[in-house]
Amino acid sequence: MSIFSLLKGSKSKKDKSLDLSWMGVDMHSHLITGIDDGVSSMSDAVEMVVRLKDFGLKKIITTPHIMSEYYKNTPEIILNGLDRLKSNLEEQHIDIELEAAAEYYLDEIFMEKVTAAEKLLTISGQYVLVETGFLNKPQMLLESLFSLELNGYTPIFAHPERYLYLHNDDTLLRQLLERNILFQCNLLSFTGYYGKTVKKFAEKLVDAQQVMLVGTDAHNHKYLNALEGLSTEKYFQKLQKLPLLNSTL
């Protein structure tokens, strides 16, 4: 047996200690090679899918970035990448449901797509995953989300616990929730992966029953390695008791 096989075997055995079967669906990850800051090779992409399956997940909706200045992806680029990944999984007889959407950065270019009724990559036909910068609130944040709703979409606010501008702005937090914007937290936030402040705010959102979706936001093996410690965190059980929408996707 090769060293690579031994390492894979050890990794698989370790993965089985984390049970995410209660999630059913991971709806936030970056598993399409070469189009954003996610997985860098097809072999890594396949291995990560296997690891996620070993966690007990039944379906993966991978969500590459669409960001006008950095990742100028289109639905065609993303769906072609999805087809390549699915073909490699089929060749290796890895059976798991796999779809693709996108993580859209809220900027003027994105809003032009929305107002022009340009086709967006959605989750389950209606949900659009959106993100912002981490430090400063976008000037048109509420207006942008409202525009999505007017065009028939339901916005999912990706990892709100990571937006420092939201941590001490109870008014903005209330405004987002009053608009029924769906909050999606990263599981890694509850491990302290992004820092203590982010972890504390993620826990606050859980305690307030304001988290409707969770995701791995996995970009590479480092993310999944860190995720293995989630089951030892005190909020792991609390997450499982939330009325999450993951399993409906």
UniProtKB/TrEMBL annotation:
InterPro entries: Caps_polysacc_synth_CpsB/CapC, Pol/histidinol_Pase-like. Its EC number is 3.1.3.48. It holds the Pfam family CpsB_CapC. The keyword Hydrolase applies. SUPFAM superfamilies: PHP domain-like. Keywords: Hydrolase. It catalyses: O-phospho-L-tyrosyl-[protein] + H2O = L-tyrosyl-[protein] + phosphate. One of its GO terms (molecular function) is protein tyrosine phosphatase activity. Belongs to the metallo-dependent hydrolases superfamily. CpsB/CapC family. This is protein-tyrosine-phosphatase. It comes from Anditalea andensis. The lineage of its organism: Bacteria, Pseudomonadati, Bacteroidota, Cytophagia, Cytophagales.
